[in-house]
Specification:
Elements (H helix, E strand, L loop, with lengths): L5 E10 L11 E8 L4 E5 L6 H9 L4 E10 L2 E2 L5 H7 L1 E4 L6 E5 H13 L5 H14 L10 E2 L5 H15 L3 E5 L7 H17 L4 E6 L5 H4 L3 E6 L2 E6 L1 H10 L6
Parallel strand pairs: 3-10, 3-11, 6-9, 9-10
Antiparallel strand pairs: 1-2, 1-4, 4-5, 7-8, 11-12
């Protein structure tokens, strides 16, 4: 029997500063299983717990897991820090990627790849790989010399996240509202980039957290989950997203 790639089991979490007994939980018993090669989508309105979930899965210290478990390849990673999760093969594409002045995209990826795989790839070798992926993502080659996310448009930042995902070769990718703020052309490029990565690595697991149905036409999910008030209240196929688009979240309350 195949071991689940990624499991969230009865997860409860709250803001870490809320240490009093009466503190309000944000995630309230969320459970989800991603098998190798599967794409799962979580959709929910503002305040449903989507951002909290993304941060908890990253291992952010701003949130406290009060009960439940997160597993990766069968290992309990609930208490692992972000660096350990990243090295193990979990990738998070941020909703608002941070800008880093003075560090080029090329050098950032070279250092990240060294930390992820423990190998020192030559600048020339990495440059050639980046050029190949930049062509697939519709990015100019000069992009790799620019400082990380500094002065980037929203679409460029999201393309850069997908570029990182391609080069770092994670086993599990978590996309936190990757479609946020993108026009249809940029969204298509990002969606096609995700699909190109999946075509090369068919066992890659993907969890996309989003507000909108429009991303789903590009990434073709195996399952769509509705997140409300910190828990998944309904799961199904693409028809779930279509119903949300037609009737709104009230259809599932």
């Amino acid at each position: 029997m195949t071991t689940p790639l990624f499991e969230i089991i009865d997860l409860h979490a709250r803001v870490a500063s809320d240490i009093a007994e009466e503190a309000t939980p944000i995630l309230k018993g969320l459970s989800l299983t991603v098998m190798p090669g599967e794409v799962h989508v979580i959709m929910g309105p503002n305040g449903s717990g989507k951002s909290t979930l993304a941060n908890v899965l990253l291992g952010s210290t701003e949130y406290e897991v009060t009960s439940g478990t997160v597993k990766f390849n069968g290992d309990d990673i609930t208490d692992w820090g972000p660096d350990i999760r990243g090295k193990a093969g979990i990738f998070l594409a941020f909703q608002h990627p941070m800008a880093v002045s003075g560090v080029s995209v090329l050098n950032f990826l070279r250092q990240a790849l060294s930390a992820r795989k423990g190998i020192e790839m030559s600048v020339l070798e990495l440059r050639l790989e980046l050029m190949e992926w930049m062509e697939k993502l519709g990015m100019d080659r000069s992009f790799m010399e620019r400082h990380l996310n500094e002065g980037f448009s929203g679409g460029e930042r999201k393309r850069n996240e997908i570029l990182q995902m391609a080069v770092l070769e994670p086993e599990m990718a978590i996309l936190d509202e990757t479609d946020s703020g993108l026009d249809i052309d940029a969204l298509r490029t990002v969606g096609q980039g995700v699909q190109a990565i999946r075509a090369e690595r068919p066992t890659l697991g993907t969890l996309a957290i989003t507000h909108h149905e429009r991303l789903l036409s590009f990434i073709k999910p195996d399952a769509v989950h509705v997140l409300m008030d910190g828990a998944i209240i309904h799961s199904g196929g693409i028809e779930v997203a279509q119903k949300l688009d037609a009737e709104g979240y009230e259809a599932f309350r």
